[in-house]
């Protein structure tokens, strides 16, 4: 964008930039209107604008407003020979550079191209930072405050060798969090061994966990290590620990206390150095009251407890996960699917996801395979377009939560485009920037 009140010089400048899409303005109001409409990456700004063409007050005010509305924009101040002091002041206010008249087309073009290159590099850097922000822990995709709180807890827990209990509904990603704990712990270079306590018959689970000696039972033809021994030095993940048979709970408790194991049919105590992470979707307190889970074992496995919220309570994560899953499955299946229709986005936001992330993964994968166009619609996802609105219970915080949720959802829908977000929300760009700052959000 060229901001210049001299029509002759403005035309001269326009022809300097054949490689750029050029827009022009002659006053501050025109410049701000063009800034909002065109979102230029580079601006050349004459400080002598009306109503103060002989001074710099209007130009400096325009500079400050441009940098307030679009801080990433590179502003090059064009000044007269006797105006070096104001040029330096402009750089102090945030201008990228300054250039003194008379205009040398080649030199000014070089300065603008350098500014454009820097703008592109910074934009790519922001994109990479935001992409990294979507994976705050290895293998975990999240952007909601609820999950970022979980991530902060994991970051504190991972370096400390304590037994950790992960609680949450089925499909919320408990094993993903467990793997993140392992990947960010000092044990990351050793094995991560997972075992589902509900998937193995009771009579086989003991030998699976602790191993067995040759001849311990019919079919035990050789000495075999258990999962606990295989995890030595690393992390043992016991999924669905609430389904552990009561007799086996006592043996697990002894291992957690003494850090030694005895194989089935053996007499030798084998020391094992392992970090234990447990997970369950069940209410262990209720199981303790019913006599189905040992209270002493509960306190032993829950030295640290992390509760993973269901997908319906993770504001903004549904669309973030959906887009990530879409890209992955489209690449795996070789399908030319690029995105979701607006109706599909709304349906996903309104759906309560009883199966959590596992259900979302299932629906998106099926939709990628079945989609006939390059966008997934409501029918492909097999969702109702109406759905149900999540119930808001905290009336004292309803305004701020609703405002933050609306901002987050809108930015997800428009993929970070500020102009489209402001239009959908019915506010000006400055108001939207203020709201983003208030709720500590970015595009």
Identify low-pLDDT runs.
Answer: 387-394
The counted number of beta strands is: 16
Instruction: Tally the helices.
Output: 19
Into which percent range does the helicity of residues fall? Answer: 40-55%
Shape, per Cα inertia axes: elongated
Work out the radius of gyration.
Answer: 30 Å
Give the termini distance in whole angstroms.
23 Å
* Biggest sheet architecture: 5 strands, parallel
Helix and strand content put the structural class at: alpha/beta
Note the beta-strand portion: 5-15%
User: Which strands sit side by side, in order, in the main sheet?
Assistant: 2-1-3-4-5
Mean pLDDT score: 87
Account of the protein in words:
This protein is of the alpha/beta class. It is built from 19 helices and 16 strands. The chain has helices at 7-14, 28-38, 57-69, 84-93, 105-133, 145-157, 174-183, 202-210, 227-230, 246-258, 284-289, 295-301, 317-333, 342-350, 356-370, 378-381, 398-413, 418-425, 429-438, and strands at residues 2-3, 24-25, 42-46, 74-79, 97-100, 164-167, 192-196, 211-212, 224-225, 235-239, 260-261, 270-271, 275-280, 304-307, 339-340, 375-376. Strands 2-1-3-4-5 form a five-stranded parallel β-sheet, with helices on both faces. Strands 7-10-13-6-14 form a five-stranded parallel β-sheet. Helix 4 links the parallel strand 4 and strand 5 (97-100). Helix 10 (246-258) crosses helix 12. The chain starts with a strand and ends in a 5-residue tail after the last helix. 31% of the residues are buried. Mean pLDDT is 87; it is low at 387-394.
């Amino acid at each position: 964008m060229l901001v210049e009140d001299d029509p002759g010089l403005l035309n001269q400048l326009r022809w300097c930039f054949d490689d750029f899409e050029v827009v022009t303005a002659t006053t501050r109001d025109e410049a701000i209107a063009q800034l909002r409409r065109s979102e230029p990456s580079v601006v050349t700004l004459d400080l002598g604008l009306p109503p103060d063409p002989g001074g710099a007050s209007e130009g400096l005010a325009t500079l400050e407003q441009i940098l307030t509305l679009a801080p990433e924009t590179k502003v090059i101040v064009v000044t007269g020979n006797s105006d070096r002091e104001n040029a330096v002041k402009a750089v102090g206010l945030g201008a990228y550079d300054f250039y003194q008249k008379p205009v040398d087309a080649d030199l000014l073009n070089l300065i603008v191209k350098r500014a454009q290159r820097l703008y592109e590099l910074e934009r790519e850097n922001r994109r990479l930072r935001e992409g990294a922000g979507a994976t705050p822990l290895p293998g975990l995709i999240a952007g909601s405050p609820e999950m970022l709180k979980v991530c902060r807890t994991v970051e504190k827990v991972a370096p400390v060798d304590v037994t950790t209990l992960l609680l949450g509904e089925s499909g919320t990603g408990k094993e993903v969090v467990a793997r993140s704990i392992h990947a960010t712990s000092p044990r990351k270079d050793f094995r991560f061994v997972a075992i589902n306590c509900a998937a193995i018959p009771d009579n086989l689970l003991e030998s699976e966990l602790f191993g067995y000696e040759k001849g311990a039972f019919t079919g035990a033809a050789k000495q075999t290590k258990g999962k606990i021994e295989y995890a030595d030095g690393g992390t043992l993940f016991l999924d669905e620990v609430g389904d552990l048979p009561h007799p086996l709970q006592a043996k697990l408790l002894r291992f957690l206390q003494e850090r030694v194991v005895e194989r089935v049919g053996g007499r030798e105590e084998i020391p094992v150095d392992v970090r234990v992470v447990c997970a369950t979707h069940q209410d262990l307190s209720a199981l303790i009251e019913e006599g189905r889970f040992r209270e002493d074992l509960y306190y032993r496995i829950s030295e640290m407890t992390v509760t993973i919220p269901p997908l319906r309570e993770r504001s903004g994560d549904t669309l973030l996960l959906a887009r990530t899953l879409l890209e992955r499955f489209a690449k795996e299946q070789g399908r030319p699917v690029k995105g979701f229709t607006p109706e599909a986005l709304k349906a996903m936001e309104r759906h309560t996801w009883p199966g959590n992330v596992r259900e979302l993964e299932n629906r998106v994968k099926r939709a990628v395979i079945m989609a006939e166009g390059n966008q997934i619609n409501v029918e492909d996802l097999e969702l109702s377009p109406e759905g149900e609105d999540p119930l808001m219970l905290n009336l004292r915080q309803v305004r701020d939560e609703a405002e933050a949720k609306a901002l987050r959802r809108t930015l997800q829908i428009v993929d970070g485009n500020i102009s489209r977000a402001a239009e959908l929300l019915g506010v000006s760009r400055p108001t939207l920037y203020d709201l983003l700052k208030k709720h500590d959000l970015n595009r």
